[in-house]
Amino acid sequence: MTVTITEEAVDAPESVELVDEFEHEMQVRYGSGGEPMHPISEMDLVAFLVARVDGRAAGCVALRRHDRELAEVKRMYVRQGFRRLGLGAALLRQLVEVARDSGFQVLRLETGLAQPEAIAMYESEGWQPITGFGQYATSGSQRAYELALG
Fold it and tell me: Which of 31, 83, 87, 137 could form a disulfide with 132, with the two C-beta atoms 3.0–4.6 Å apart?
């Protein structure tokens, strides 16, 4: 098994497919009446990474700029058939390196209670729980995390 993680265009066909699958899974986990996904503007997108297993697109993650020092992890997703291989942690670690190289000092992310495997991964990777932020600041079904890069 050969795993590669590369920066790819967010509008490439396989990238769009991965994001569409992510959004569908979030609708299934949280219900179709849940909070809508907000697009990441091209200006705010720092990087979009795709993990491939033997050349097949298996997962993705995006880095969204908030300001010069703060960025947010978005669209973290690993396809069903590729889970439990460590791809999520590998994507996250690579994204942290991209953020460091881009000069960010702090990363944040949010995830929901219906994603206990994501919560376990973030905590095992050293992310610290924080008070909610952004559109999910008052949501009782979300958890927020932060990682200091400095």
Answer: 137
pLDDT 10s digits, 66-120: 999 999 999 999 999 999 999 999 999 999 999 999 999 999 999 989 899 999 9
Strand pairing category for 106-112 and 56-65: unpaired
pLDDT over 80 (residue 136): no
Q: Which pTM was predicted?
A: 0.92
* Sheet with strand 45-53: strands edge to edge: 3-7, 45-53, 56-65, 70-78, 106-112, 142-148, 128-130
CB atoms within 10 A of CB 74: 23
SS3 string, 6-73, reads: EECCCCCHHHHHHHHHHHHHHHHHHCCCCCCCCCCCCCCEEEEEEEEECCEEEEEEEEEECCCCEEEE
